[in-house]
């Protein structure tokens, strides 16, 4: 089956009389018909949330509390970029800088009404149904122990994952080889 463009993916298959075939929600779609590689682009993404009012207690405390007006906090500020098929896109930044918020925006996990900017796939607006068909989202789950060194962390993993029959010296050698290969 050949789709002339990405929007046809959302429409599904039709039988010989033109009626849509009801397909299972979780289906495998062959995307090899596309001659071009996928390019997910995002341009001028901005996202802000309302921050609840804070209470101020003037002196003396027995007076009525003054309430500040509700403010907004900008989480994404005019972010643009692209992720191309076959390449690795790294999103780097300090804690609280908006990395997870950006990934949530690209994965369609933020309501469209509150997200400003454009997200496109091969130049076409990316709809949430199409996004669910062609992508997956894996939640962050930190499995690192902050009090351990890199070597200790990898060694803990080796102890759990390698068979008990592998001697400790052999495990240590494999850990060191991995650390050297990754440049850690």
TrEMBL record:
ABC transporter domain: residues covered: 76-184
Localization in the cell: Membrane
Pfam families with a match to the protein in the record: ABC_tran
Keywords of the record: Membrane, Transmembrane, Transmembrane helix, Transport
InterPro entries reported in the protein's UniProt record: ABC_transporter-like_ATP-bd (IPR003439), ABCG_transporters (IPR050352), P-loop_NTPase (IPR027417)
UniProt topology in membrane: Multi-pass membrane protein
Recorded GO MF terms: ATP binding; ATP hydrolysis activity; ATPase-coupled transmembrane transporter activity
GO cellular component, one term: membrane
Protein name: ABC transporter domain-containing protein
